[in-house]
Amino acid sequence: MLLFLLFGFSISIQAFDRYTPETYPDSSLQPLSCGQPRPSFLCDPNDFLSRTNNTGRVDKLSTSLIEVRGKTKCSCSAADEIQCIDSSNGFTMSIALVPKFKLNDDEYTQANLLRAAELFADSLRDRYDRDQCDDDILIVYSTNDSIIWTSVGDVASRYLYRTVIDQVQKQAGKSPFFSLVNLIV
Fold first, then answer.
1. With a threshold of 0.70, does the pTM exceed it?
2. Which residues, including other chains, have CB under 8 Å from residue 103's CB and lie 6 or more apart?
3. Residue 110 phi/psi, 5° resolution?
4. How does strand 136-142 pair with strand 92-98?
5. Which end of the chain lies in a sparser environment, N or C, as judged by fewer CB atoms within 10 Å?
6. How many independent structural domains does the chain possess?
7. Chain segment 53-91, per-residue pLDDT in tens
8. What is the domain-level CATH number for residue 38?
9. 125-156: b (≥16 Cβ within 10 Å) or e
């Protein structure tokens, strides 16, 4: 019986090592599952940021993500399907950290990791539904894969061009995660 419990426990831990967009926690609804003391736009369920002993920078990052929403204005235009719901809120930028993307061992190539990151980020951004008119941005960072992907809604992409995102992702891939944090903060 004890062996069964230990075996079952190790499987449940491993199952959460590789999240899917459906199993990844929502930092607005489940802040504690995301390593946050209160609702946030930052989710780090495996405490990667806490292990780096940069609590002050993590707090500043979380605050900066909230400030982006408060300091920008709604960018929905008359041509957009949905209009501004709350004109006091602008772009919503979120960050999700995952330990590793869920791929089979024989699928771990750079191209497959980038595709997995893209699909994960787009699906999670859609699931989070934090936009007013597709004016949201979600950055996903896989800590073990060293892959960063940015999913941008259509309205947000009018202001944040894919070429800029690609340059930041390329540079961030060469640097520690906190280099990316410094770009945001």
1. yes
2. 112, 113, 116
3. -60, -45
4. parallel
5. N
6. 1
7. 667 778 888 888 888 888 888 777 766 666 666 566 788
8. 3.10.310.50
9. beebebbbbbbbbbbbbbbebebbbbbbbebb
CB 93 within 8 A of CB 72: no
Do the Cβ atoms of 103 and 112 come closer than 8 Å?
Answer: yes
- Interacting residues of 93 by C-beta distance below 8 A, sequence separation 6+: 41, 65, 68, 69, 136, 137, 138, 139, 184
3-class state of residue 98 by DSSP: strand
Distance between CA 93 and CA 70 in Å, rounded? 11
Question: Are the CB atoms for 137 and 91 separated by under 8 Å?
Answer: yes
Residue range(s) defining the domain that contains residue 112: 2-184
Torsion of CA 12, 138, 86, 63, to 10 degrees: 80
What the block records as the tokens of 1 is 């019986």
The residue whose two tokens read 């993500």 is: 65
Containing 7, the helix (H) or strand (E) segment is helix 2-15
Q: How remote is the C-alpha of 94 from its chain's centroid? A: 5
